[in-house]
User: Fold this.
Amino acid sequence: MSNHPGLSNTFSSSGEKFEWSKESLKSIKMIISRYPKDRHQSAVMPLLYLAQEQNNNWISIECIEKIAETLNMPKIRVTEVASFYSMYNTRPVGKNLVQICRTSPCWLRGSNKITNTICKETKCDINETSEDNLFTVVEVECLGACSNGPMIQINNDFYEDLDEESTKTILDNIKNNRPNKIGSQKGRRSSENA
Assistant:
């Protein structure tokens, strides 16, 4: 989470050797086949995402080393990419990474109330992980749906048109292992007028 405010971009060691799973190896073969033979290193971003997905939602030093080996590129180049983009987590995170949009459009529509609700319900502040390791809460600059704010992203799912009640429901559903309604919480289609 190098680009998240307040979090270190220093990579940590998991203390365990990282090896690709059989499923990941199949995906890697397909991903690399999309690039010309002399441009396989261009697959670094999808391989970082694949490693993160396989490694409990974070990129360890061991992941960096395995990607560098797989793509036959210097570790520093893999590290540069992983530390530049906020979508790669450079340290362990909770099972559910809650990213709260803090830019002006979401703020004008009440993201500060959403932030307070999330911190209260997860029992952790911004840039912290809950004691039960269920949530890590961070603020991000933009989640790309400004007209549907306030919004959050939890792992790969986007939740839009939030208020305090819908935010609490989403978090309660996660805590109780129940499915959530993804997208607009008010039934808006796409980015149509509210």
Observations:
- The two ends are 33 Å apart (CA to CA).
- Strands lie at 96-101, 128-129, 135-140, 152-154, 157-160, 183-184.
- The chain has two domains: 1-92, 96-184.
